[in-house]
Prior knowledge:
The complex is a heterotrimer. Chain A is 32% helix and 22% strand. Chain A is an alpha+beta fold. Chain A has two domains: 2-63 and 90-206, no CATH class; 218-348, no CATH class. Chain A has an eight-stranded mixed β-sheet with strand order 3-2-6-7-8-9-1-10. In chain A, strands 5-4-12-11 form a four-stranded antiparallel β-sheet, with no helix packed on it. In chain A, strand 4 (70-79) and strand 5 (82-86) form a beta hairpin. The model of chain A has no long low-confidence stretch (mean pLDDT 90). Chain B is of the alpha/beta class. Chain B has two domains: 25-126, Beta Barrel (Elongation Factor Tu (Ef-tu), domain 3); 139-297, Rossmann fold (3-Layer(aba) Sandwich), CATH 3.40.50. Residues 11-20 and 25-29 of chain B have low confidence and may be disordered. Chain B is built from six helices and 15 strands. The longest helix of chain B is centred in the C-terminal third of the chain and has 14 residues, at 238-251. By secondary structure, chain C is an alpha/beta fold. Chain C starts with 10 loop residues before the first strand and ends in a 13-residue tail after the last helix. The longest helix of chain C is centred in the first third of the chain and has 13 residues, at 70-82. The model of chain C has no long low-confidence stretch (mean pLDDT 91). Chain C has two domains: 2-157, NADH:ubiquinone oxidoreductase-like, 20kDa subunit (Rossmann fold, 3-Layer(aba) Sandwich), CATH 3.40.50; 168-241, no CATH class. Classes of the chains: A alpha+beta, B alpha/beta, C alpha/beta. At the A-B interface, helix 1, strand 4, strand 5, helix 3 and strand 11 of A face strand 4, helix 2, strand 13 and strand 14 of B.
Amino acid sequence: MIYKVIGKDEFRKLIEGLIESNETFGPRQVDTGKDGQPIYQFRKVDSFDDLELDYNYTASSLKNFFLPFKELLSRYAFTDDDWEQGIEYRVNPRVIVGARACDINALNKLDDIFIRGAFPSPYYMARRNNTFLIGMDHMPPEDCFCESLGELTVRQGFNLFCTDLGDRYYLSINSSKAFNFLKKVKTSNPTAEDDRKWIERRQLIKSSFQTEVETDELPDLLDIEFSSPIWKKWGDKCLNCGVCAMVCPTCYCYGVEETIDVSLKQARKERQQYSCTVVDFAEVAGGHNFRPLKEDRLKYRYYHHYHGFAENADQQICVGCNRCGRACLPGINPKDVINDLILESGDDV
Amino acid sequence: MTFKIPKQDINFKPFMNRPPDYKLKHEIMRTDRVYKCEVINIIELTAEEKLFHLKIIDPAERAIFHFRPGQFLMLEVPGFGEFPISISSSSNNQEYIALCIRKVGRGTEILHRARMGSRVGIRGPFGTSFPMEEMVGHNILLVAGGLGLAPLRAPLYWVNEHRDQYRDVSLLYGTKDPSSMLFTYQYEQWRTVNRIRLMTIVDRPDENWTGRVGLITELFKEIEIDPLNTYAIVCGPPIMFKFVCNHLDSLGIPMNRMFVSLERRMHCGMGKCCRCMVGSTFTCVDGPVFDYWSVMNLKEAI
Amino acid sequence: MKYLGIDPEKIKIGSFDFTCCEGCQLQLANKEDTLVDFLNLLEVVNFREISSYRGEDYDIALIEGAISRQDEVERLKRIREQAKVLVALGTCACFGGVNQIKNKFEIEDVVREVYGDDPVETLPVRKISDVVKVDLEIPGCPVSKEEVEKIVVDLVTGAEINFPKYPVCVECRRKVNTCVFDLGLLCLGPITRAGCGAVCTSGKTACIGCRGPAEEANYEEFRQVLKEHGFTPREARERIDFYGGLPEMVIDES
């Protein structure tokens, strides 16, 4: 990693240059909640001033820039008594500004599955390789617990990462593209003072977490407490609405659907983001449902997140952003569910 | 000041003339492109099940398509969907692939209307297989319930083609009623030519049925099993393989010598969509063939 | 489609409106970019919004609207006898729709309110399946043309027709919408069947349940959610009662 320091005015020039030449996305306020608080999402930006780099969190994650909610996998063109398959996964380069460390870590986890897994996905790779990603540190919102999961800092998976030192950014440069762009703006090598401020900033962030979740023992605990009554308690609250998985930065489960055009001349095969909490997730043809109960489905989501799957090297895939907890209308959230699970297992002893 | 980001094409060759090496990133296109096949034969097995013989049209593609007994493919019916099907033919058969398909759900219902010459696609093969080499020199006990005979046909072909390498081979097959019994036209050949001890049983006999009646576990009363020299392959509904495997376990067959093939809904076959997960295990990449010890350790398998 | 030996056959349809706004039928004539292709799949025997021809030899009858008069009952029964497949099209046909609000009041009061001193004959509103056997229900106020296109393709090719089982929230979040609960609205999305593409919530208005219940909707918890978001039972009941598609979502006002 190469480190530089850039004044915020110069940084603005860099971003403006990127916006001018590429499709660029970043945090923008999209609504004001009934509590008067702004609601942010990653959206297209047309100028630097569109960006709200001091945002607390976006309601939905970055995931769907790489795994679109609906994605065309292939097309079938029908001819007389035959068909031809067409596959296309070219995407235009684009820039994302203002990703948080946990969001980038989430992408790194998705990389394990979609790039380094047994069957790499060309669709995902095309999007990932063509995205210039600029990360930015931030003070944790009160319900975030990424520190508990070790996702507070990020060392890979981005082009440029900015640590805010007040009037300037301390840059971690992780790609030749970023390095070359930075040659065109004014940067300097970090001074001892910059380094000290960098450490202070990191320590401040680390000490600012208000939510802690004990996750180390969870892989075993989830096995041991597979039939714990807490699953029914929380499962009964689940609306099966799938919102948790939609906003999650790492939930990647999907379904594939085919649709024939009304012209009957071609069909589309599309991947759609799905959720394991949705009622028919594990239903097979003929109607048998391997997870007929709400509690089975909710438990499965926690199992996936905190037990880990072989495909991603048994890592826990939660990054602790608590988007699912915020989005859940009945208030199911990882902190409370996990604490309940730990308490419950304590009761057994 | 402008900073144009150069476009990075994931430019995959549309076709390779050897099996894909997934470690080479430029070869990954194979994962989503189907092999186009022609239906060259359709055999009506029962009212619900048909056996389709598919021939990969492109000779070069046909030459690189290899599978092992127990593996499955994703069968694509363009416009109507894709579904996992275990391969029911010999892994030695270079001419065609046989798939036994029950009419259940959107894709399979449409496929049942296909005729000779219809064109469908396949992706794969995917998943784990039965360790046929490891079983050499041992007795083999195949136990199938209902449609579970379909995935057992590939290992059965293997055994028949290498019959001298294996000792006693038994096939126990149970179905609900006589009319749902599959591949009845092959039984005689299996018995006489291939020296397979084949026993069948039905739960609900009709007036023409003269064979055994009851659940598949009844058949165990009639055979002797040498637990330390026997490998078992069990395939059928979860409740059935649970009973069968528990019985075999009580006889003393080691759990890692009992193999089952699990079925789940799948949308990708490549360990991505998560629809086929059992606990934290993918049926499509870690399975569908598991030894019974692994199945016991899978949460929610049975 | 010939690759499977399927020779798609045009379906002969008749479309009939009962107590409704005819918006669903009109919806079928929408979406100009695919309208020609759409009509190519149909042999329109009887369809006021599309053609002036009136035939009686339809196979598939699209029934729009609810039943609120005796003459409608008889007309519907005649259509049922003729049709091989009878489709309830739209929320009024599937659940009674807006019309069934009438059933919450005394019928004399309703007639007086609307027609004053010139009363008309009227019955309590019934959905189509209360009167005749319905083979297929396509909910929506109005129906989604995209969904209808899919269904017509399925009918033409003989494929199984599937509706989403999950609630509107799935589609709403796929569109990266702000949850309208966060904007202070009472939304029925969490218990309503998806398939509409979350059109209402994408326009920052609440879902009012026109598509009926999602499968295994969690009514009990949803009642709790409404309470915790500060909605009164009366507000909840008014919303639920609007289309009559969520009869299992009972609100206790006491």
